[in-house]
Amino acid sequence: MKGPTTRKHRPAARFCLVHSRPMHPRLMTLLPMVDPAPSTTRVMRVALAAATLATLVGCGGKALAPSASDALRAELAVRTKERDEAVARAAELDAKLLSLATERNARIDPEVAEAMPALAAVGLASLSTARLTAPTKATLAIVLAPTDGLGRFIQLTGTVRASVAALIPGRDPMPAGSVTLAPKALRDCYRSGFMGTHYTVELPVEWAGVEAARGLSVAGEFVDGATGKRYPFLGTVPVVPAKADATSLPAAAGASR
């Protein structure tokens, strides 16, 4: 005769109390390895959920109040940058003095002279644009691309002069402005980024009348500060509305080196 059978207790499935769905694995790891009696399971899970919620709510970050050290760190960064710039300028001056002394007192190796880059042309790049600020006013950005004999960018040292004329259909070109940049000012116009390396000269232009120009004619020259040689540049820059999308700008018509 068989004795009384003992009903084995199967572990209760781990369900979320709110949505009656299986609990998140991270919460399941927090439960005991052996399930408690069914009478205490619900109470324990409620307590665990409340503790977890309180922990998440109470873990907010603490904002740091400004201190005197912040100003000192900012000043140190500024002074460090100024020191690095001064060191770079001193190194550049030493290189210039050494170059002048070498050219005066010694004969330059022909191979070195042949490999040394030199300015071959200055071009008005197609990145040049003019944006209308009023019916007869615009802000012109002249983008210059100087290159050596291999067509590679080369830095400029000298003076840039340019004159601008407004182009209106059915009318003669009308003077709109001019600009002259000395060597130091030209050096500050150096730009380098994802659009390439170039010099950008910005100036406001204005012409007589009430009609908006379709384009601006730019004629200018660069005078080399060391040799005195002149490099002319000429081209037409399109005029676009002030709020035009930069990606829709047409290439400058007639831009040339």
Can you give a write-up of this model?
The chain has 3 domains: 13-54, no CATH class; 72-115; 119-248, Immunoglobulins (Immunoglobulin-like, Sandwich), CATH 2.60.40.10. Residues 15-20, 32-38 and 245-257 have low confidence and may be disordered. Strands 1, 2, 3, 4, 5, 6, 7, 8 and 9 form a 9-stranded mixed beta sheet that branches. The chain is 28% helix and 30% strand. It has 5 helices and 9 strands.
Summarize this entry quickly.
The chain has 257 residues and is of the alpha+beta class.
Layout of strands and helices, then pairs:
Elements: H1 25-28, H2 38-57, H3 68-105, H4 110-115, E1 119-124, E2 129-134, E3 137-148, E4 158-167, E5 174-181, H5 183-187, E6 190-193, E7 196-206, E8 215-224, E9 230-240
Parallel strand pairs: 2-9
Antiparallel strand pairs: 1-3, 2-3, 3-7, 4-5, 4-8, 6-7, 8-9
Shape, per Cα inertia axes: flat
Q: Mean of the pLDDT scores? A: 78
Please provide the count of β strands: 9
Backbone structural class: alpha+beta
- Compute the separation of the termini in Å: 112 Å
